[in-house]
Each structure stands twice: as C-alpha cells, then as structure tokens.
Amino acid sequence: MNFLRNLAGVVLGVFTMAALTLLLPILMWLALGPDGSFRPGSWEVSGAWNAGWIVVAFVAALAAGFVCDRVAAGRIALWILILLTLAGGVYSALFYMPEAVGEVRPDDVAIFDAMAAARRPMWMAWLNLPLSAAGLVLGARRRGKD
Question: What span, in angstroms and rounded, lies between the C-alpha atoms of 63 and 65?
Fold first, then answer.
C-alpha cells in the first residue's frame, strides 16, 4: 500500500507542477500582454516576464511538494519527484536551442504563437533547477515521517 501511495504522490506532484506552470503563465500573459511579456519588437522575453517566471516556478514547486507530501507514505516519493524534476530540467537546459528567428515580433500576437516563438535566457533554464528543488523541499515540510 505504501508503494501505491508513494507512486500517487509522485504522479500528483508532477501533475500539480505541470498544471501550474501552464496556467500561471497564461495569467501572466493576460496581465502583461505582448508588450509587457517581450522586449520591444523582439521575441526575447522581458525582465518582467523573467521575474514572473521565477515566482511561477517556485510557487508550482511549493504546491507540487505539498501535494506529494500529503499523498505519499514517506519521504522517498519527494526525493523521486525532485530527481524527476531535476532530470527533466537538465535535459531541457542542455537541449534548449532557440531558433534564430530574424523576423520582428508583430504588435498583436496570440498566446500560443507567443509560447512557441518566445526566447528565454539560458540562465533561466539553469536557475529553474535549484529553484524547483528548493520549492519542492519547502512545500513538503513534513515532520516526524520517514
């Protein structure tokens, strides 16, 4: 039974993180719009977007750690979730190669087009690793359990 609870904790933690890292940036987009999300005439994300993403990544990790901790039978589920998150983050950082798009960003752009064309700084991919790990651990502050 403990195995199933741990597995459920990991799965629900991954789902929580994925859902929040999809939904919260949509809210950021609605708040910032294209001009606040990107540098003028460019597909490079703005400083405001980068700052917002740091908050999004940390909040998503906190929530995922919390969910994992509440469902799982022990700490092993949290460590598996951390390892999966770090492995996916390293893979993403190593293989993130933004295409060289020479075109100027139009003033009016749909959110899904923006998601596909956005160029994030490389440092953000590497910052997500410790940020996510810390958020998962803090979200799962469990006392008195293995």
Answer: 5
CA distances from 29 to 49, 70, 118 (A): 9, 31, 12
Cβ 73 vs Cβ 6: under 8 Å: yes
> Which residues are bridge partners to 45 per DSSP?
38
Percent of the chain residues past pLDDT 90, beyond the cut? 71
63 forms beta bridges with none
**Residues 6 or more apart whose Cβ sits within 8 Å of residue 17:** 60, 61, 63, 64, 85, 132
Task: Pick left, alpha or beta for residue 74 (phi over 0 → left; psi -120 to 50 → alpha; otherwise beta).
Answer: beta
Cβ neighbours of residue 82 under 8 Å, at least 6 residues apart?
Answer: 133, 136, 137
> How would DSSP label each residue in 34-77?
HHHHB-TTSSBBPHHHHHHHHHHHHHHHHHHHHHHHHH-SSTHH
DSSP secondary structure of 10-34: HHHHHHHHHHHHHHHHHHHHHHHHH
Q: What is the mean pLDDT of residues 130-134?
A: 96
Predicted local distance difference test score (pLDDT) of residue 102: 61
Residue 137 and residue 129 in contact, taking contact as beta carbons nearer than 8 Å: no
